[in-house]
Amino acid sequence: MKTKEFFKQKTDQDLYKIYKGGTTTYNEKLLAQETLKERGFDFNNINSYKEEWELEKLEKEIIEEKNAIQGFLVFNPLYFRFFSIAILIGAVYITVSVILELTSIKEIILEHYLMIAMSIIFWLLGIGGLRYSITRGKYLKYRTQRLEELR
Asked: How far apart, in whole angstroms, are the C-alpha atoms of residue 119 and residue 91?
């Protein structure tokens, strides 16, 4: 059983998750609610807390991202997109070179299995990289807009 001291060490956000969560016991919910009330938590104005927590999360994410890539090239979805396109060009080249040497399917499988494997790997890396860079770019744009809204 978690003690009152355990709950006093938790942040408001953690306590609210315990209070609202479905995986906690009834006693834990009561202790979380009691601790929040002691801190002056306003249960009627939860949206302002949620916005504050989201702002903190986004700012923390930006700081962690900057610390993680310090000394490296800053992540830019555009760089990753160019890299993915270069890999796709390599995949096209390998695929075309295998097709041009095609005399029979059996020969391709036996003699060019390494080229076929490389082609498949390059296609997967290229397409996966493009999808990732597009998704990441959209998220970075959303995060920037959301930070401006919350500030």
From this structure: 5
As for how many domains the chain has, the answer is 2
Same domain, 85 and 62: no
Query: What's the CA gap between 45 and 120, in Å, rounded?
Result: 54
What does pTM read for this prediction? 0.52
Burial class (CB in 10 A: 0-12, 13-18, 19+), 149: exposed
Q: Rounded distance, CA 29 to CA 44, Å?
A: 17
> Nearest 5 degrees, angle CA 86-CA 87-CA 88?
90
If phi > 0 it is left, if psi is from -120 to 50 it is alpha, else beta; for residue 7 that is: alpha
Dump pLDDT digits (tens) for 30-76: 888 888 888 888 888 888 888 888 888 888 877 776 665 555 555 56
Single out the residue in 66, 92, 120 at which a domain terminates. 66
